[in-house]
Design brief:
Oligomer: single chain
Order of helices and strands: EEHEEHEEHEEHHEHEHHHH
CATH superfamily: 2-enoyl-CoA Hydratase, Chain A, domain 1
Radius of gyration: 17 Å
Distance between the termini: 40 Å
Strand content: 15-25%
Helix content: 40-55%
Structural class: alpha/beta
Strand order of the largest sheet: 1-2-3-5-7-10
Number of strands: 10
Number of domains: 1
Length: 261
C-alpha cells in the first residue's frame, strides 16, 4: 500500500512532509491522521531537522479536511466508546514537535486542512488557494481548532461568516485578513516555502525553539479551555441524527435533509 504521508529532506536542516492522497484532494482518513502524527514525532527526534514544511501532493489541494465517509464515523465510534483524542494530524491540540512548522498551502485548505494550517507557525499560500470551514454543511462543526483559532486569526466578522455559512474565501482575501503571510505563484510555492524554512533552520537552535514556544503559547496553553469546549460541542453534534444525515448525503452526493434531531 502506498504511503499516505511522505517525508523527504530537500534542504539542509529542512524536512518536507507531504499529504500524499492527491486522488482524494489529500483528504485525511484514519491511517493518514495517524501517519501524520508518527511522521512529526519522528522528525522531532531527528537532530538534523530544524524546520518542517507541510504541504499536499498535486496542484489542486493542500488538504480538503476529513475524508468524510471514513474519518467521521471513526471519530463518532471513538467518542461513543470514550476514547476520543482531539489531536488531528499530530498538530492541533498538543505540541508533538518543538520545531517550526511552515504550511505551504498549494490549493484548497478546507475543514481539517484549514485547521492543520492554523496550527502551523507560518502559512504561505499559492495564488489559487482557497480557505474554508464547510463542516456546518454536513451537520457538524470544525472541532479540531477551527471554531477556536479562526476567530483569533482573522477579523471576527469574517470568521463568523466562514464558520456559519461554510463559504470559502480566496487567497487574496486570506492575505488581506492576515490568514497567510504571503502569496506565491503556484509553480514557485514549494521553492519559496523551502527557502523560508532554510532561513529559519539557519537560526540559533535554542533561540528558534524559544521563539516557537512563545508564538505557540496563545494557540495551545492559553486556548486549552476553549479547545476543550469546542471538542465537547463537536462530540455532541457528531452524535446527532443530523450529523449522520450529513455524512450519508455527502457520500451519496445529494443535498442533506436536516431535522434538528
Amino acid at each position: 500500500m502506498q504511503a499516505t504521508v511522505e517525508t523527504t529532506h530537500p534542504r539542509p536542516g529542512v524536512a518536507l512532509v507531504t499529504l500524499a492522497r492527491p486522488h482524494r484532494l489529500n483528504a485525511v482518513d484514519p491511517p493518514t491522521d495517524h501517519a501524520m502524527g508518527v511522521a512529526l514525532a519522528a522528525l522531532e527526534a531527528d537532530p538534523r531537522v530544524r524546520c518542517i514544511v507541510i504541504t499536499g501532493a498535486g496542484n489542486k489541494a493542500f488538504c480538503v479536511g476529513a475524508d468524510i465517509p471514513t474519518l467521521l464515523p471513526h471519530l463518532r465510534e471513538n467518542i461513543a466508546a470514550g476514547r476520543d483524542d482531539p489531536q488531528f494530524c499530530g498538530v492541533t491540540h498538543r505540541n508533538v514537535t518543538t520545531k517550526p512548522l511552515v504550511a505551504a498551502i498549494n490549493g484548497a485548505a478546507m475543514g481539517g486542512g484549514l485547521e492543520l494550517a492554523l496550527a502551523c507557525d507560518v502559512r504561505i499560500a499559492a495564488t489559487n488557494a482557497r480557505f474554508g470551514l464547510p463542516e456546518v454543511r454536513v451537520g457538524i462543526l470544525a472541532g479540531a481548532g477551527g471554531c477556536t483559532r479562526l476567530p483569533r486569526t482573522v477579523p471576527a466578522a469574517l470568521a463568523a461568516e466562514m464558520i456559519l455559512t461554510g463559504e470559502p474565501i480566496d487567497a487574496q482575501r486570506a492575505l488581506q485578513a492576515g490568514l497567510v503571510s504571503r502569496l506565491v505563484a503556484p509553480e514557485l510555492l514549494l521553492e519559496q516555502a523551502l527557502e523560508l524554512a532554510q532561513k529559519i533552520a539557519a537560526g540559533a537552535p535554542r533561540s528558534v525553539r524559544a521563539c516557537v514556544a512563545l508564538l505557540r503559547r496563545p494557540r495551545f496553553e492559553e486556548l486549552a479551555g476553549a479547545l476543550a469546549e469546542e471538542r465537547r460541542a463537536f462530540a455532541q453534534v457528531l452524535a446527532t441524527d443530523d450529523a449522520m444525515e450529513g455524512i450519508r448525503a455527502f457520500a451519496e452526493k445529494r443535498a442533506p435533509v436536516y431535522r434538528d434531531a
